[in-house]
Amino acid sequence: MSQTLLAGLARTTRPQSAVRRFLALDAVVTGANGIAYLAASGPLGELLGVDAGLLVELGLFLTVFAAGVGLLASRPQPPALAVKLVVDANVLWAVLSVVALVAWLEPTTAGLLWTPMQAATVAGFAGLQWAALRAVAR
Question: 0.85 exceeded by the pTM?
Answer without folding.
Answer: yes
